[in-house]
Amino acid sequence: MNPVVWLALAVVVVAVAVAAVWLSSRRRHSDALRDTFGPEYDRTVRAHGERNEAERELEARAQRVEQLHIRALSDTESTHFAEEWRSVQSHFVDDPEVAIAEADDLVAEVMQTRGYPMGNFEQRAADVSVDHPNVVENYRAAHAIASRSAQGNTPTEDLRQAMVHYRALFDELIGAQVTASRR
Fold first, then answer.
1. How far apart, in Å, are the Cα atoms of 147 and each of 16, 45, 152, 162?
2. Taking 60 as the threshold, does the pLDDT of residue 181 lie above it?
3. Left, alpha or beta for 121 (phi > 0: left; psi -120 to 50: alpha)?
4. Which of 120, 122, 132, 152 is the most buried (most CB within 10 A)?
5. CA-to-CA distance for 33 and 39, rounded, in angstroms?
6. pLDDT-derived band of residue 179, with 50, 70 and 90 as boundaries?
7. pLDDT at position 153, please?
8. What is the dihedral sign for C-alpha 151, 153, 157, 160?
C-alpha cells in the first residue's frame, strides 16, 4: 500500500482516538457535576437551555463558594438555632404567615452564621446549591410561598408546605458538617 495512504489512515485513526478521549472526558466531567449537584444540575440545564453553559455556571458557583469561609456550626450554635426553630414552629398554629416570615429569617440567620453571603435570594440559593444540592429546591419553593404570603391571602396548606421546605434546609444547615477537604 502507498505510504501516503498509510499516513492518511494513521492520521484518521489518531483523530478518532483523540475525539473519543475528549468525548469520554467531557462525559466524565458532566457525570461528576451531575453527581455533585444532583437535581440542581438538571434544573440549571433547563434554565440555561444548553448543557455546556449550565456546566460553566455550576463550575462558577463551586469556585465562588470555594472562596467563601463556610463553616459548621458549633454545638452551642446548633442547639440555639434548634430552640429558635421550635419557637418558630409553635407560632405556626396561631399565625402561619408570621411563622413563615420567621422561618425565612431564621434560615437566613443560620446561613449568615455559617458564612454564606446575604446578597439577593438567587445568589444565596446558588451558593447553597453547592453544598446542599438536594435541598436547595426546598429553599426556592419555601421562599416563593413566603413571598406570596407577604402579599396576602395564601392558603394554609401552602404555608404548611413552606414550613416543611424550610425545615428540610434548616435541618441540613444546622447539622451539615463542612467538607474537610474543601475548608
1. 53, 25, 9, 11
2. no
3. alpha
4. 132
5. 11
6. very low
7. 80
8. positive
